[in-house]
User: What shape does this take?
Amino acid sequence: MLLLAPMEGLLDATLRDVLTRTGGIDRCVSEFIRVTNTVLPERAFIRVVPELLNGGRTRAGVPVRAQLLGSDPSLLAENAARLAGLGPHGIDLNFGCPAKTVNQSRGGAVLLDEPELIGRIVAAVRRAVPAQVPVSAKMRLGFNDDVRAEECAHAIAQAGADELVIHARTKAHGYRPPAYWDRLAEVRASLPAHLRVPVIANGEIWTVADALRCREVTGCEHLMIGRGMVTDPGLALAIKGQGGVPWAVLPPLFQLFWQQVSARVERRHRAGRLKQWLNYLRRRYPQAQAAFDELRLLNEPVAIEAWLRRAQIDIEIPSTEAIVLPPAEMAPAW
Assistant: This one.
């Protein structure tokens, strides 16, 4: 099983929609929905996971698991119960976000120093949602170090999680290579037989060779991939031995991406979103470098649309493709 990772500010509903159309991705996890001091209205969940309006799936039919972030077990449980009523394909809990602002608010990776609290959160959410709704968690190896990685994994499994994703780095490591797959293997192996939940490996999977090596080192059959999939939309297919995605397939995806960005993102930030994706794609495709160079100094949507027309990309989408997407949060300026 290959999962598309959540990445705040990059892998949102728009890019999930586009990437799942290429094939090979078995499930997505949304970017986090922050829970602080209230039970969120339904629109707050739908804003981050508009797929809830489409049976909990992307337009290509790939299921999406909605992710919650917070530190209050009771509030997370109440929000999970409301979210479960909207039909997500499971609920995921974020214990891995390394962002400073998130960690300062006692969210994400900072909780890895409190395995007992992590266990209480998972248990509260598991009790709050129907038995048929999967509950999973995503963690890093630790905050400043990895000495409590086993404790955290045990707490998550003991509390009743159905799956555990481990990003094979600490918060202090950020996203710097390498990923410590051997350490992930140790954490996985430490789970006793009665706590053997599926463990999914995440971190530094950019190529088919990386995926094979990660499986070999970690012992994990299932993988979660983020930046590697953004960089190479055909990576999931390639890992499954079904070829890949040549550049010629991407122009229609740019069409879809731009149409959705235009519907959901403030005008002055739209060009940045396209350039952000091209910046990743140029690692895999020489043609993306040329496109990025052409667009680098363009910021007005009309200029981007002119470029799309020159590239013979029709930015109109047939009405049969349409589902209503609520406005997204503004993307950062490029």
About this structure: Residues 153 and 226 are 21 Å apart (CA to CA). DSSP finds 14 helices and eight strands in the chain. Residues 313-334 have pLDDT under 50 and may be disordered.
